[in-house]
Amino acid sequence: MFDWLFDKRKRKDVRLDHIGIDIHSHLIPGIDDGVETVEEAVAMAAKMQSLGYSEIFTTPHVMWDCYRNTPEIILQGVEKVRQAAKAAGLTIGINAAAEYFIDEHFNEMLAKGERLLTLPGNRLLVELPYSTPLMNTSENIFSILSKGYQPVLAHPERYTYFFSNPAEYKKLADGGCELQVNILSLTGYYGENILKMAEWLLKNNLITFIGTDAHKIQHLELISKSDKNSWVSKYPFSNEKLLGI
């Protein structure tokens, strides 16, 4: 009679070994809207290790109106997390890139050839405004490519202004931009419409990478219970293979 209750208690966390590497998270304390303490960062790294990840490339925001993070700030911060995780006995690799908001400051850094923190393969993780579309998104992607970077657009499923014309996603992909979907989107965390768009992008083979975009331990707890979404538990993503690691 109570088999459903016992089944729920026995349910294990989803395994993400097939993904291997997470390329999008916010685990450096106090520099953006992610974790606030080293202890939180280590707890999240431990949870990601338990889910099957072998490596993390954490990606703090670089958004000049809010988070004026430089490579020096980011690399110093990730080293503190790395050392604390090692002291805690974790074996997961912890590295850093950045999530660059495409704004005037970003375009200036790109034009001047300033140092930018990248994912393997010289991949540059970028994000767009949530509420108002840029007038020159395609031109920005071309500029990134022309500087020798491979652009990766973070969470395209969350830019709701594209929903009325999904062909814009294919235009970006055909223009050389890789797209990264959030696992959180596939849990329904951001709402039903964003879940549907994330699945539409996956069904249409427009997604290259899948990432957590975890900002806090509660995000990882939610992801750990996402076994009912076949895109998370069964789709043969391998960030490790795609990154050439």
TrEMBL record:
Pfam name, any one: CpsB_CapC
Please name the top-level EC class of this enzyme.
hydrolase
Keywords of this entry = Hydrolase
Catalysed transformations (reactions): O-phospho-L-tyrosyl-[protein] + H2O = L-tyrosyl-[protein] + phosphate
- UniProt cross-references to InterPro entries, sorted A to Z: Caps_polysacc_synth_CpsB/CapC, Pol/histidinol_Pase-like
Q: Does the keyword Oxidoreductase apply?
A: no
> So which domain of life are we looking at?
Bacteria
Q: Name one GO molecular function term.
A: protein tyrosine phosphatase activity
Quote the EC number: 3.1.3.48
Query: By its UniProt entry, which PANTHER family does this protein fall under?
Result: TYROSINE-PROTEIN PHOSPHATASE YWQE
Similarity field: Belongs to the metallo-dependent hydrolases superfamily. CpsB/CapC family.
Could you tell me what this protein is called?
protein-tyrosine-phosphatase
